[in-house]
Specification:
Elements: H1 6-11, E1 17-19, H2 28-36, E2 41-44, H3 51-64, E3 69-75, H4 84-93, E4 98-103, H5 107-115, E5 121-126, H6 129-137, E6 142-146, E7 152-153, H7 161-171, E8 176-179, H8 185-193, E9 199-201, H9 203-206, H10 215-223, E10 229-232, E11 240-243, H11 246-257, H12 263-266, H13 272-281, H14 304-324
Parallel strand pairs: 1-9, 2-3, 3-4, 4-5, 5-6, 6-8, 8-9
Antiparallel strand pairs: 7-11, 10-11
Bound molecules: flavin mononucleotide (FMN).
GO molecular function: nitronate monooxygenase activity
InterPro entries: Aldolase_TIM, NMO
Protein name: Nitronate monooxygenase
């Protein structure tokens, strides 16, 4: 048996599972492993310092897989923003036609991706129905609906996927995938039942053999509970879900206690540069790093192939079991 959803058909993949963009994780090794396993692997553009480095990374990925893969372009507010259009141009020049966009004001980049010949398939990730509807107007092909459980930018409304996915089903005219809190086939079956065409996972893919991060961090994820994440930066309307450690606790204390509310007080604690080092040196307390509540559901470090085969099998079994619960009309 194999899956046949709008996502598998449109992207040309076997299993309706996408590996979402991940800063300092979404390199060629990660994306190729997921695509080789039947899902959609995604490179994260901004892990590459320049558009030309992204070109090299795309070419490296092509040598590692013959299956489709995508590129994530995340647009974050910055004093000196990266040249997003130059990254997008490299994506197009290299013949990539699947892009995950996320973040603020994605309009100009989405317009450029959709104007290409042939146009890109754009999956736009967002945490509110309002933002999803704006993205629909921009012509995106799929929404990736990120519930409050998710790793990273959770938004400011704290709506978990049980509500958010059904809202998406009720109100969006474009197909969507479910993101945040997924790790197994039971989750995939639930997402499909709620109307999604597949799922997007981040944290679960960090704890795989091929994830290009230090083994200590994979073990920290396996050892963690669902209560081991922390929300920071709400005060600045940029709430992020991070792995709870000494640094997030110190950062949170400053956030709550600062009399000035000056971002510069917390900035050294939430520095991305220190977070990047965590994945290289394996010290989970060295800086802040992103993880979702789903850490409580992750108990092993399989290959991507083992993980996706297991998810496929569990989802098929779960959906068959659900089907078997319906019998002829009872006389009761
Ligand atoms: C380490 C890490 C880094 C991430 N970086 C990005 C990013 O740069 N851009 C983005 O759109 N999403 C990013 N995400 C979010 C994921 O793409 C995905 O939406 C999220 O992990 C889904 O929630 P889950 O972790 O519960 O599966 C990141 C997630 C993780 C775990």
């Amino acid at each position: 048996m194999s899956f046949n959803t709008e996502l598998t058909r449109k992207l040309g993949i076997r299993i309706p599972v996408v590996q979402g963009g991940m800063m300092w994780v979404g390199y060629a090794e990660m994306a190729a492993a997921v695509s080789n396993a039947g899902g959609l692997g995604i490179l994260t553009a901004l892990t590459q310092p320049t558009p030309e480095d992204l070109r090299k990374e795309i070419r490296r990925t092509k040598q590692m897989t013959k299956y489709p893969f995508g590129v994530n372009i995340t647009l974050l507010p910055a004093i000196n923003p990266p040249d997003y259009k130059a990254y997008a141009q490299v994506v197009l020049d290299e013949g990539i036609r699947i892009v995950e966009t996320a973040g603020n004001s994605p309009g100009p980049v989405i317009k450029m991706l959709k104007a290409a010949s042939p146009p890109c398939i754009v999956l736009h990730k967002c945490t509110t129905i309002k933002h999803a509807q704006s993205a629909v107007k921009l012509g995106v092909d799929f929404l990736s609906i990120d519930g409050f459980e998710c790793a990273g930018h959770v938004g400011e409304h704290d709506i978990t996927n049980f509500i958010l996915l059904s809202r998406a089903r009720q109100s969006l005219k474009v197909p969507f995938i479910a993101s945040g809190g997924f790790a197994d086939g039971q989750g995939l079956a639930a997402a499909l039942s709620l109307g999604a065409e597949g799922i997007n996972m981040g944290t679960r893919f960090m704890a795989t053999i091929e994830a290009p991060i230090h083994n200590n961090i994979k073990k920290a994820i396996v050892d963690a509970q669902e209560t081991d994440t922390q929300l920071v930066l709400r005060r600045w309307k940029n709430t992020s879900r991070l792995f709870k450690n000494k640094v997030t606790e110190d950062a949170y204390k400053i956030e709550v206690e600062s009399k000035t509310g000056d971002f510069s007080e917390i900035q050294p604690y939430v520095s991305g540069a220190r977070g990047r080092q965590v994945f290289l040196n394996g010290d989970k307390d060295f800086g802040v790093w992103t993880a979702g509540q789903v850490i409580g559901l992750i108990h092993d470090i399989p290959t991507c192939d083992e993980l996706l085969s297991r998810i496929e099998k569990e989802a098929v079994e779960t959906l068959s079991k659900a089907n078997s619960l319906i019998g002829p009309k009872s006389k009761l």
